[in-house]
Amino acid sequence: MKISQNTRIAILVLVTLISLVYIFTRPVIIQDTAYHNFADHRSLFGIPNFCDVISNIFFFIFGMMGFNLVCKNKILETRKSWIVFFIGVIIVAPGSAYYHWNPNNDTLVWDRLPMTIGFMALYTALLAENITLKFEKCLYPLCLLGLSSVVWWAVSADLRFYYWIQLAPMITIPLVLILFPSIYTGKLWLTGVFIFYALAKITEHKDPQFLELTHGLMSGHTIKHILAALAIWCVWKMLKTRTLRNINA
What contacts 24, CB < 8 A, 6 or more positions away? Predict the structure, then answer.
């Protein structure tokens, strides 16, 4: 049985609302200060926490690759969202490097602000390409919503809003890809995005274990940066290789 467009949109809205209720019915989530105690404290060339700082270069490299690619594509209808997405990725590099130079709640703000820009711009682009191009108009409001979640955490110390900004796209984007036909090919590359992102979260939570496993070569958090950057590479590869398709065929 074919599901109508309105029913599919209703499912998407319902899942989004359920995620919102789930997060905000939980107790207030406070940033654990132990989070800042990363496993690899080694300094090199006068740079503290060298590996965690310098590994952010991959965000800059892949972010610039994506930015240059999209800027050259003058006919891309979701061009604005993709440009903002890659700008967010590029800014993650100095923001995260600044945080890892001296990890604490104050510097963490500058790590999280550009990440929310990236999350919301990616979400906007995929909504526009899979449901309706009208979603492109939501780009700036959604980016402001993402930024406000970090500001709210900085002011209130409550992480729930920020967590929801990450949770909602992560559970609804797969639904969007399943329920709505994209005007482009290349969905397989988005699967790579989710795989690398999931692996990045795993290595982040196993920070000291990976430092031990690699015999001191790289900690889990350094590997997390590389894996998360590879997720960005998958987005770049998708945009570079995909083609328009006839969804009515």
Answer: 160, 164
Q: What is the DSSP letter of 134?
A: G
CA nearest neighbour of 176 among 137, 216, 124, 225: 124
CA distances from 159 to 4, 28, 114 (A): 36, 7, 16
If you search the block for the tokens 């070569």, which residue do you land on?
217
Q: Roughly how many angstroms between the first and final C-alpha of the chain, as a whole number?
A: 18
List all residues 6 or more positions away from 193 whose beta carbon is below 8 Å from its beta carbon.
231, 234, 235
pLDDT digits (tens, 9 = 90+) for 154-191: 999 999 999 999 989 889 999 998 888 888 888 899 99
Name residue 108's beta-bridge partners: none
Pair of tokens at residue 57: 């270069």
Residue 102 phi, psi dihedral angles, 5° rounding: -150, 80
Distance CA 82, CA 223 (A): 25
Query: How many Cα atoms within 13 Å fall on the side-chain side of residue 9?
Result: 9
With beta carbons less than 8 A apart as the criterion, state whether 80 and 121 touch: no
Q: What is the mean pLDDT of each run of 10 residues along the chain (249 residues)?
A: 82 93 94 94 95 98 98 91 98 98 97 96 95 93 97 96 92 90 88 94 95 94 97 97 72
Please give the backbone phi and psi of residue 192, each rounded to the nearest 5 degrees, phi first: -60, -40
Radius of gyration of the chain (CA): 19
In 46-186, which residue ranges form alpha helices assigned H by DSSP? 50-54, 57-72, 79-101, 105-130, 139-156, 160-179
Beta-ladder partners of 184: 244
